[in-house]
Amino acid sequence: QLQLVESGGGLVQPGGSLRLSCAISGVTLDYYAIGWFRQAPGKEREGISCISSSGGSTNYADSVKGRFTISRDNAKNTVWLQMNSLKPEDTAVYYCAAAWVPGVSSLPDLNRRDFGSWGQGTQVTVSP
Fold this sequence. Notes:
The termini are far apart. The protein is mostly beta strands. It contains no helices and 11 strands. It has strands spanning 3-7, 10-12, 18-25, 32-39, 46-51, 58-60, 68-73, 78-83, 92-100, 117-118, 122-126. The strands form 2 sheets. Strands 2, 4, 5, 6, 9, 10 and 11 form a 7-stranded mixed β-sheet that branches.
């Protein structure tokens, strides 16, 4: 019954900011690392960020490092992706995904195969 629902996508200008939210239901978040992925039409789905179940560990793809920040509040059943200094190449459908982990500091790599549950995606378009 694990479900993830993304929201917050939209159209922004280059250099702008956007915050995506991932609402998670059906499970306690204590045992799930959460990742953000994105996919442009005709391209491979790209892992961009991940956060451990405790929130204490994060990683980022080089393409977004320094611009995006992932965070979570397990009590609110929510994970966020703050996106700053957006570029046209950030345009994609953004997905959140959950990976069950045995430890609170466990951090999967940014490989979609490690994540068993996915949201429906939210469109982010960066354009003048």
